[in-house]
Amino acid sequence: MKILAILAAAIVVVAGASAVVLLNNDDDDKGYYSSNSDCRLQVLGNADKNDYLDDNDVTKIKEMISSNTYDQMADANNDGKVDETDLDLVQKMIDLKKSNSGKADSEKESMTVKYITVNNDIRDAVYPVKKLIVVNTQRVLDICMGVGISDRVVATNDYANKYATSIDSQYMYKAFASLPSVGDRSTPDLESIAKSDADAIYREFGTLP
Question: CA-CA distances (angstroms) from residue 188 to 10, 105, 162?
């Protein structure tokens, strides 16, 4: 199952949410930058390492091709070199964001991107994430609300669901109150996850079995 998430310290998600930030923020929203790679998803192709995929990355990769230099963040396909293939992939990411703008999720096209996990592994994730499962605490619900993707969450776990349905916090998390649960946060039910038809899982502190 493809995994992808959204941003937060030590998020191992089988994905990672910065991708949503990296590929969805407009040019005039570029106030965020973190030098701590544990706190964001590192998408290969983000050649200038500023947390956004844009024309500056295209320019940086062209410079590296001309000077025959290498940097892992510029190696979009993770083949050990920076070349025209990486340039084409980054341009495709940028063009995809533009072509998907304003479309319903059912009409959006997808592509596979590579990212570096907090364990320094390289994994694949599908962009854009249309259906997301939150397998963690209410903090992840907070992040989903903060980056504006509450409507993409299709299931939670028992722990997060407790906050979504409790009297004390029902108003804050009402967007998640009616969602099904996929079980305990440390050992979620894989069959329930499969039935949710989600294309991403957002989870902190470890990976799913």
Answer: 19, 26, 15
How many C-beta atoms lie closer than 10 Å to residue 151's C-beta? 10
Pick from 142, 150, 202, 141: which is nearest to 19 by CA? 202
| Contact between residue 13 and residue 3 where contact means Cβ atoms under 8 Å apart | yes
Helices (H), 77-123: 84-100
- The helix/strand/coil state of 159 is helix
pTM: 0.65
Closest of 44, 36, 55 to residue 19, by C-alpha = 44
Task: Annotate 167-190 with DSSP letters as a single string.
Answer: TTTTTTTGGGTTS-B-S-SSS--H
**Neighbouring-strand partners of residue 11:** 204
Tell me the torsion sign for CA atoms 120, 122, 123, 126: positive
Taking CA atoms, 198 is separated from 17, 92, 167, 169, 182, in Å, by: 15, 24, 28, 26, 12
Residue pLDDT, tens place only, 80-129: 999 999 999 999 999 998 898 888 878 989 888 998 876 788 988 888 87
